[in-house]
Amino acid sequence: MSDGGDVVSDGGDVVSDIVGDIVQDIPAPVCDNIVTLDAELAKKIALELGLTADEFLNVVRTQQRMPSLTELYIYSLMWSEHCSYKHSKGQLRHFSSKGKHVLQGPGENAGVISVGDGWAVAFKMESHNHPSAIEPFQGAATGIGGIIRDIFTMGARPIAAMDSLRFGTLDKPRQRYLFDGAVAGIGSYGNCLGIPTVGGEVYFEDAYEGNCLINAFALGLMREEELTRAVGSGPGNYVVLIGSSTGRDGIGGASVLASQEFDEAAENKRPAVQVGDPFEEKLLIEVCLELLKAGKFVALGDLGAAGLTSSASEMASRGGVGIDIDVRKVPQREDAMQPFEIMVSESQERMLAVVKPEDFADALDTCQRWGVSCSQIGSITNTGRFVVRDSALPADAQIVADMPAEMLAESAPEYTPQMSRPAYLDKLQSYPLDFVYECVEDNILNEVIAERIANAEILGLDAFVGAQFKGAQFNGTRFKDTQFKGAQPVKDVTAEEVAAITAALSAQAKASFDIAFLSMLASPNICSRRWIWRQYDHQVGNNTVVVPGADAAVLRIGDTGRAEMTCRGIAMSTDCNGRYCYLDPYLGAQIALAEGMRNLSCVGAKPAAITDCLNFGNPEKPEVFYSFHKAVCGLATACKHYDIPVISGNVSFYNESFGNAIYPTPAIGIVGVVENIANVCTSDFKQAGDTIILVGETLDELGASEYIKVIHGLVAGKPPSLDLQLENDVQSAIREAVSCRLLQSAHDCSEGGLAIAIAESCIAGNIGAKVTLAEPIPDVAALFAESQSRIVISCTEANTDRVLDILASYNVPFSILGETFGNRIYVEKSDGSALTPLVDVSLETALKLYNDSLEQMVNIK
Amino acid sequence: MKNYKIYVTAKEGIFNPAGATAATALGQLGYDGVNNVRVGKFIELQTKDDVQRQTVTEMCEKLLANPVIEDFRIEEE
Amino acid sequence: MSADTNAVSLKFGVVVFPGSNCEQDVVHALHLLGHEANYVWHQDTELACYDAIVLPGGFSYGDYLRCGAVARFSPVMESVIAYANAGRPVIGICNGFQILTEAKLLAGALLQNRNLKFICEPASLIVEKSVCKWLDPKLAGSVLEVPINHNEGNYFCDAKTLAELKENGQIVLRYRQAANGSLDNIAGICNRGGNVFGLMPHPERVCDFATGSTDGRAFFSYIFRYILEIASNTKNNLNKNGSLNSDDLNSDDNNIIGNVEVAQ
């Protein structure tokens, strides 16, 4: 090491030139005898820490000298992808966060909207993919912890959480380990906090095998005037650290993990995984909300990725002030921690507050009552500098970092990566799907399924469940090897074996699509998620009006703690079909929004705003960045069309392993308002004799469908089309019918198409249905096409005319399908005169398969 | 300073679901020789020199183990 | 006072331990039933002013060592034990039940669920014929739908204790279908006097029409009779152990203690 005078390196001339240029823009340093690194060494460390050579020069330029070791660590984290969004910032400007009900858009810990009567909700979705891929239980648990802190930081009491999860297929032991562990981790953390986990979504696709996705979505409720921001102010005010002690956990954790691809060395990163303490977090919630309410905090922020560094510098930057921190005043749980370790540690369950000196005693008192640690670690200054000192060092060498706060937080580099349209898109979108129809026409559908069952190597499962695992391809090259008329045998299966299974299947079947239908119900992407949400406390808080398993969750707006109850509610949903986004990122992202809105409309809620969690591969790869760009544009355009602001969100890049990227997965979390919770509608059929109506229209669209994946092991074709205006009209009509209490049930038609939507309403209500389809399209499409803008509703016979009037007034297509009836799921086709049965299965068979499939897969031994 | 090691195990005859599950899993991994698995807790206790074994026993009886369902064993280093 | 189901408004003390998370739900349910409810911080020890004490659900002290093991040593628990031994009504729900067993106010212990998973789902409970003061004896034999929500709800006690529980009518609730591996499908038990009641299911979650069924109301709307009985007995009726003799509870004396107020 040398002192700052010796700035000489291969970049030395450039550095001194630049330093001369920009001197006037940067607040003056507090101290100029800081111990800086030798130029060569600094550059070497910078590169090791993930900064590029240009970024390193930028650091020198900003500092107007070589950085100290602590400064270099701090810059490398603040300018990492995870903290700085350097590859995505430009694209994110496409989103609009405007809306008259928006109280806080992106840029804070969470977005906030007004939901009427003086109530507001704060919400955000965030990824915790990389930590979870290493240690699923702790990774998922700390993901919940982080997003919950983002919510109560804003002054809101967290009242609900959801999760959007993606894994590889469950025939792989590691995928079962990841899935089981992540679900247990989410439950363990959320349950302990007393925050209900009210739903979510999960998909299993090969594309996520190397990189599972754990996106946590949380929502909190507050009175509008309670909104708090992490804006530091008032020189002389104390900077106070509240919560857990600081260890070496996750040094370079989230920010490092989330900023590079995964490889075999990932397992060795295990020590960097943070361990969550939900009990401490529960106490933090109570302490912080109590002190916020008492007006004892000037500002509050949580310590997330990059720990103290990022929360302190952002707080200073937002407030245009400086911060001066003494690392020795930070309670430490490990010996001999270096200043940079303390500054970048990602120990969980810590909050940073700005407190007026006269309020500190009260803050301390409240913390002590709850048994929570509270330490003054520094002060707000008027220098605009982010200063880190170590009072254990000799008096003249205590300052270890002295940086311009605003530049550090806001002047990260911004990149516009190259884009190029992935070659696979044209090939897969135009892939001929004739064989899908031919299989049906040639009457060999059962034989195709029989081959998949015969090929299933996993024993101890229902045949339909086992058959899910064969022939699933995703990457656009492997499917060439598969012969579609009868899937390619994976092991040696004799023609006799297949014939025997075909005969057995056909003997069980009463109608031509029975076997295909049951296979679909057992699909891991369709079957019941009860095994998951049974492990989550989804009712604590006494406000859960619609529990998991429905289209959207509904929570009453009310604060049980204050005995303030309303009859209004908040609806929440998360959505994204990654397969659609893989096959058409623009359209796929739009469908994610449309489906999320549709889920809300089904329960009777009007969509108000979204948060997003954009999960992609390596943005430096032109094909990945193309998908990112298209998905963002698609989502932004649809949001503008519906006037839905994007109020918070997160980008997760580098979701790749061994060079394979995940499906582009722009998951959205959507929030809407229910005007009267007594009017909410659920998806289950209620009684026999009700009229079943399809609102919307089924088109011959099997591309990207679950059907061709489950039956033919194929990911190809173009996702279903989306007419933004029709979608809007269908949803408006449904919301009106729900608010007039005319509907018995409403259920979104999504993966698996109409046949599955009807089956799900039957299974949820434990009542059969008799349905006649008359659309002039092939039977297989009528049953399983995933055409958008469709909702299956039921109403009493007496209300049917009024419902039809409403549908007519919105000028939306609809068809009366039949009625709820008996204990079979019966679907027939009418071609004017003749009636042909397509599906005829007992409700009991369907129910058992649908309910048990996931648990069977998880418990494969 | 003294170091005590405390082993807390499920009492004889009390079903130990964690142990039973581990036993089944070991069997499935091909370890046929496993007759029984009992999963318990291991506690490391660092005390001042004057803390006697009898006091540690009290700690176990009072807090660290639940005598209704658990046995404990203390080792002093 | 709500016009709902109660003729009498009681004052409940709802104990808050660090990590409790159902205390607000209990208070909400009690308010719906027209009762008054105050939070009692775990370091407070003054319970005399309450007609009944609730130990709510949650994860006291993170449930890190054993569920309820640390909470049992909170200052408030000495008072709860004295209060219970004086024959006054105490109910422990979920974590509260676990704390009551750790405090030895109730027999047995709660082990991890048989399937090693947290379970949150509706449960059908059979009300047994018991000495429990919290439920209307007329409910014996009926079925109540009350959700369970726990990771350690698998009730266990030794054979001798089980025989005693049966003999003394201390088994209050059983699951209709096996839920978590509980011995004899036990979902709730009481002490011999019937004034201390612990159960794993969460009745406070099913008291509000807005969020579902209201079977849970039965758990908070009958105890007033017992409280009136105690009230109508003078303190002289306490037996030497400090606990109430149930034969003493049928006096005609109309003295009222605590905060029981009779509806007009």
Index terms:
heterotrimer; B: 77 residues; alpha+beta; 2 helices; C: 264 residues; alpha/beta; nine-stranded mixed beta sheet; two-stranded antiparallel sheet; 5 helices; 13 strands; globular; disordered N terminus; disordered C terminus
Helix count, DSSP H or I runs of 4 or more residues of chain A: 31
Distance between the termini of chain A: 57 Å
Summarize the amount of helix of chain A as a percent range.
Answer: 25-40%
Please state the CA-atom Rg of chain B, rounded to the nearest Å. Answer: 16 Å
Query: Can you name the CATH architecture of the domain at 424-527 and 681-858 in chain A?
Result: Alpha-Beta Complex
Q: Compute the number of helices of chain B.
A: 2
The CATH class of the domain at 424-527 and 681-858 in chain A, by name, is Alpha Beta
Describe the structure concisely for a colleague.
Chain A is α+β, with helices and mostly antiparallel strands. In chain A, α18 (445-455) crosses α20 (495-508) and α24 (585-603) runs parallel beside α27. Chain A starts with a strand and ends with a helix.
